[in-house]
Amino acid sequence: MQFENILVDVDEHIGLITINRPKKMNALNKATIGELHQAFKALNEDSDVRVIIITGSGEKAFVAGADIAEFSDFSIEEGAQLAAKGQELLFDFVENLETPVIAAINGFALGGGLELAMACHFRIASDNARMGLPEVSLGVIPGYGGTQRLPQLVGKGRAMEMIMTAKMIGTERALMSGLINQMVAQEQLIPYCKKIAGKIIQNSPVAIAAAIKAVNSGFNGQGYKKEIEAFGECFGTDDFQEGTTAFLEKRKADFSGK
Question: What predicted TM-score, i.e. pTM, was given to this entire model?
Fold first, then answer.
């Protein structure tokens, strides 16, 4: 896959997406969001890819925010359309992807960058990372899911503080509040994410996809219902037959993803 604003590499069942706009601190514009949608869609449809990692190029930024120059003169209608389209193509799309997505946060993750990281299934950050939602300092609010996902991760009070002060937080506070899962040295970020990906790859892709759906459903009041449905559906998969047979035969399972 060839893109202008991102790089995509697949190796040993891991798809690595790198947002590559170093002169813009990897800021998200419409073109980049469109390319990311295409890349995530293609990797999700590739049966050889079991985990996706997304990061930013260089050591300064994961994504330093949205490309403000692109929408500074938008009308009310255009602003609403921008948020709706972005959520449809990227943020909601990533959150509901069947393939697990790990955000490897290197440096700044601000505004749309933090919103992208929060849409991923979990987050690992380098020890120099800085995170925040500074939108109110520009006279606007987070529009790519930030007002919804941040409270889910850190609680209402912490989310309100971060949003209303527009201040950044460091990796230690992000770890303490549950915004990120782990903190590692900059040079260990991608290797560590690949190590976690390796553990995920050992498990059933079908079961993982079902678990993602069930967990996400818990935030719209349908969690227990979806869990019951997804649990039952697992019994009709090849992975279930392989997993239970391997357990009884005391051997390692070889999942097909079917």
Answer: 0.90
